[in-house]
Write a structure and sequence with these properties.
Layout: E1 9-15, E2 32-33, E3 36-37, H1 38-48, E4 53-58, H2 62-72, E5 77-80, H3 87-92, E6 104-109, H4 117-128, E7 133-139, E8 148-152, E9 155-160, H5 167-170, E10 174-183, H6 184-192, H7 208-214, E11 219-223, H8 235-255, E12 259-260, E13 273-274, E14 279-280, E15 285-286, E16 291-292, E17 297-298, E18 303-304, E19 308-309, E20 314-315, E21 320-321, E22 326-327, E23 332-335, E24 338-344, E25 349-352, E26 355-361, E27 366-367, E28 372-374, E29 384-386, E30 391-392, E31 397-399, E32 402-404, E33 409-410, E34 415-416, E35 425-426, H9 438-455
Parallel strand pairs: 1-4, 1-6, 4-5, 7-11, 12-14, 13-16, 14-17, 15-18, 16-19, 17-20, 18-21, 19-22, 20-23, 21-24, 22-24, 23-25, 24-26, 25-27, 26-29, 27-30, 28-31, 29-32, 30-33, 31-34, 33-35
Antiparallel strand pairs: 2-3, 6-10, 7-10, 8-9
Length: 456
Amino acid sequence: MTSSPARSCLTIILAAGEGKRMASDMPKVLHPVAGLSMVNHVLNMCKAAGAGERAVVVGNQAERVANSVMAHDASCRVYEQTERKGTAHAVLSASKAITDDLDDVIILYGDVPLITTSTLQSARTALAEGSDIVVLGFETADPTGYGRLLVENGELVAIREHKDATDKEKSITLCNSGIMAFRAERMLEILKDIGNNNTQGEYYLTDAVEVGRAKGLTASTLSVPEEETLGVNDRTQLAEVNEIWQQRRRKELMLAGVTMQNPSTVIFHHDTIVERDAVLEPYVVFGPNVLVAPNAVIRAFSHLEGATVAKSAVVGPYARLRPGAVMEEGSKAGNFVEIKAATIGAGAKVNHLSYIGDAEVGAEANIGAGTITCNYDGFLKHKTIIGEGAFIGSNTSLIAPVKVGKAANTAAGSAIYNDIPDDDLAIERNEQANLSGKAKQLRERNAQRKADKKSS
């Protein structure tokens, strides 16, 4: 069920906390899940849910967080909470964003990155159906430490903190996630009436339920899976959230037609695209900006970053594709091959133990074992061009800039520094000299050296 598209919505993401338990110089909300900061995951979900306007409340290292969110989502607005006076106070820091033309406002958290679009849409639906306040809750087997949602006759009457709960209230397993949604028209009135008569002297968003009900407004709960409400306070929780995200993505891709032989060993970046009928073998790691086309195979223990793998291409095992690597249809990069800023043409093969950087490899070319493109002279990068159907012998060094013509060959062990015309064979070797008895002399000399050293 989705909310009416006619209703306007603002999401306010609270991202001002210090996150001391992360033991990090980086603001907590900027720690990544699948390569994207937690707060930007939340922004993505807001946009995907059609939530409309987005605002982020910053505090700790405000400029750094603001720069990150604005670079990711230039349409979001940023507000600073200059003093830490609680969650209600944080929301009021963005009060200028709560305008008269708004219908809905949803409060989210920059360190709770697993919220889903369907949940946000369901919260908006509850508002559209008449609730003035909607609190997201979750059922848990061990509610110790969580605030409880007190429901009477189908309405939420209060949120009770664990330390203040009676024994009967502590038996309740429906707990407060902290995520709330409001009808915008009365929201500011509610927030401004929240007091700070508590041991911390702070203004708590949870008090909005009782304040709102005192004004004759209705409050309700929306039960969601516990994993969606998981917040990150330390590195162990960050790892747990990362793994849940990975599990979700693996499942999505497999249901979309991607084969994974051992799913738990495959690691995705947040922007990885893998298309139908592709095969991912165990222990494959994706960095940013990778596209794997249908029927491509990524073999075990390969690492891909900034790469495009076309239909029916094969990568690995133990291959590394670096930024700018393009594998065209039916091409192959085999074991212990590294490709960077290079295009491997359709049907071309780089089967093993080679480095191809800053290069163009033509269709159906064959690159022998141990081939390297010598692309860097210490100051500048230079390009190697290998023509269609060329055969590069094993252990060839291609000293860029250099061009190998169509159907040209190089002899094994050659260092190629001049262009090779089409259909030519290039051989570059020094004359071999066999020195009679020299190996025996060297063995005897080295043995004597060892003996002298041992006796000294």
